[in-house]
UniProtKB/TrEMBL annotation:
InterPro entries, alphabetized: Aminoglycoside_PTrfase, Kinase-like_dom_sf, Mito_inheritance_9
A Pfam family this chain is assigned to: APH
GO CC annotations, alphabetized: mitochondrion
Aminoglycoside phosphotransferase domain residues: 95-230, 318-367
Protein name as catalogued: Aminoglycoside phosphotransferase domain-containing protein
Length: 592
């Protein structure tokens, strides 16, 4: 069935073009490698500012803070020395900065004897000091025990104050093969499906391993003596579940707040901790994050701590009614959270063979129903294929222009691969299929929203919960009155729900209209910065003219607009937050 679908889709793309398959252009590469080399073997001295700062683009949203959190001070010479020592080379003769990630600095280091290694250093925004690096290393080793291809770690340090490098680091094997990113656009459907099939085998291995709790993976010896842990041994290695280091536990100032960070031996304890995390962050973080999915301001939805607090309390009262009874869905599972073409290496001679998977930072052991999603390599522009139906070209394909036929053919190509993937999962991996289907449910959506209320979603969440309780669609076991929600409250909640939906629609319209210059996660390429700033400034003025009725409204719109540069005040706030992060780490680590 899968083979027939892939063969049929290839024929469809040939029909659209007249011959051959769709060839997608290689993604635009905006990275530039910063390289320092020497033909000599004497000790070199490197002091290149670009090694320390973020060089991959610009930030539209609060750039002062974004750049500060991605600036990393470290001793380059000592890093080179540590790398050479790790692989028993006499000296490191060259260091090359790889494209910046959002949370790390990565370097390729070359030795006098021809060896090459990768050094990975976490930025200040990467997560909790010590724990983030210690967990990443242990997770990679754990994945090796499951026969997942990951780079070998040669040496590492998670205590910046105990190394001459003056920063945490991991020295690891240079991943064999080439990035899938360089070959994926050229691969036909069968080859792409072979890669996806390999990824599914890895996903199945993750789902098959039965963890006994929720948290993040460590070598037991790397946890402070009195730290909470759930030990487990596997293939002769002493691992433990310990403090969770997922992004949602660290981003937006959450890492500065004293929280129950696990590990947890029960699902109820884990899901409850999510609600208490949001509640505490709403109360304690000095500045509420701006929504990334909803335009907010007078005349639309306006978030407040009071509304967020109400929503978080509601989550804590009702989350148990949303938990599925199928234990396969709630089993604790480790999972790679970012399976895209830049984290997967393949054999250049046979790109269907995966040679390495990188970027295990912030891996969590949490319920399968939360983790399981299709690999990001299957995401594509345009509408999704409906259900399991074979996608087809439009009936009027012969009437379309050449460019329209190309677009239709490309969409068919991507839809066919997605449908083949879904059919294969349903036939071969029933537990994964159940998890994927559960992710389409309202229960899953409400659990997800409830665990992100500090950042966004409380307006829609409150309105939808009230609607479901009143309709009896989900048996929560409590009425709105029993939850302390008055008729007056219901009227306001429903109005907020409608306003937040409109704000989400506006953000979606803005994203579609701006296309490649839209600042996803607040970021744009260098060449798009000026245009993005100008367009967003114009859009802001249009929205202010449309919704603001008083000078106070205009001031509030300017304050809440998410796409603004920031300045001295934001930089001072960023320094304060970095200080708080350091204080939080010292209190957490040394208390244990």
């Amino acid at each position: 069935m899968i083979h027939r679908l892939l063969t049929w889709a290839k024929a469809g793309t040939s029909q659209a073009f007249g011959q051959g398959m769709v060839r997608h252009p290689l993604p635009y590469s905006f990275s530039r490698h910063i390289r320092l080399t020497s033909r000599h073997q004497q000790k070199l001295s490197y002091d290149h500012e670009d090694f320390h700062r973020y060089t991959q683009g610009r930030f539209i949203e609060d750039e002062a803070t974004a750049m500060l959190f991605r600036y990393l001070s470290f001793n380059v010479d000592e890093l080179m020395s540590a790398a050479a020592s790790a692989v028993h080379s006499r000296s490191c003769i060259a260091i090359e900065k790889c494209p910046d990630g959002m949370h790390n600095k990565t370097f390729l280091l070359k030795m006098d004897d021809g060896k090459e290694v990768i050094a990975r250093l976490p930025n200040p925004n990467a997560g909790i000091a010590h724990y983030t690096t210690a967990s990443e290393v242990a997770t990679m080793e754990f994945m090796r025990t499951l026969s997942i291809p990951v780079p070998k770690v040669y040496t590492w340090c998670s205590q910046a104050d105990q190394t001459a490098v003056a920063a945490e680091y991991i020295i690891m094997e240079k991943a064999p093969g080439v990035l899938l990113d360089t070959l994926w656009p050229k691969m036909d459907l069968e080859a792409r499906f072979a890669v996806v099939e390999s990824l599914l085998k890895f996903c199945s291995a993750w789902a098959d391993f039965k963890h006994e709790g929720y948290g993040s993976i460590y070598f037991e010896k790397d946890l402070p003596p009195s730290a909470a842990r759930l030990p487990f041994a596997h293939q002769g290695r002493d691992f433990a579940l310990g403090t969770i280091v997922g992004r949602s536990w660290c981003d937006d100032g959450r890492d500065t707040v004293a929280l129950d960070r696990g590990p947890w031996s029960t699902l109820d304890a884990y899901l409850g901790a999510l609600g208490h995390r949001e509640l505490r962050c709403i109360a304690e973080v000095s500045r509420l994050p701006k929504s990334r999915s909803c335009i907010c301001g007078p005349g639309l939805y306006q978030p407040t701590r009071q509304k967020k607090t109400k929503a978080a309390h509601l989550y804590l009262k009702l989350f148990r009614a949303l938990i599925p009874t199928d234990r396969d869905l709630t089993q604790p599972t480790a999972w790679h959270h970012d399976l895209h073409v830049e984290n997967i290496f393949v054999d250049p001679d046979d790109p269907t063979v995966i040679t390495s998977i990188i970027d295990w930072q912030s891996t969590e052991v949490i319920p399968l129903m939360v983790h399981a999603r299709r690999p990001y390599i299957l995401d594509h522009d345009g509408p999704e294929a409906v259900g399991m139906e074979e996608p087809r070209l439009p009936d009027n394909v012969d009437e379309l222009s050449l460019e329209e036929r190309k677009a239709a053919s490309a969409l068919l190509f991507n839809q066919a691969l997605t449908v083949a993937y879904k059919r294969w999962v349903e036939a071969k991996y029933p537990i994964l299929w159940k998890a994927f289907k559960y992710r389409e449910s309202e229960n899953h959506a409400l659990l997800g929203l409830g665990s992100a209320l500090f950042v966004e979603g409380e307006g829609f969440y409150l309105a939808r919960i009230v609607e479901l309780i009143q309709s009896g669609e989900i048996p929560f076991g409590m009425t709105v009155a029993e939850l302390g929600i008055s008729e007056d409250d219901i009227t306001k909640i429903k109005a907020d729900g409608e306003a937040s939906l409109r704000g989400m629609e506006l953000m979606d319209e803005m994203r579609a209209a701006l296309g490649p210059i839209f600042p996803d996660k607040g970021w744009v390429r260098f060449e798009h910065y000026d245009e993005a700033k100008a367009v967003l400034s114009h859009l802001k003025e249009q929205l202010i003219d449309l919704y603001a009725t008083t000078p106070a409204d205009r001031a509030e719109w300017n304050k809440s607009w998410p796409f603004d540069y920031g300045g001295h005040a934001q930089r001072q706030a960023a320094w304060s937050l970095l200080d708080l992060r350091g204080q939080a780490y010292n209190a957490r680590y040394h208390a244990q």
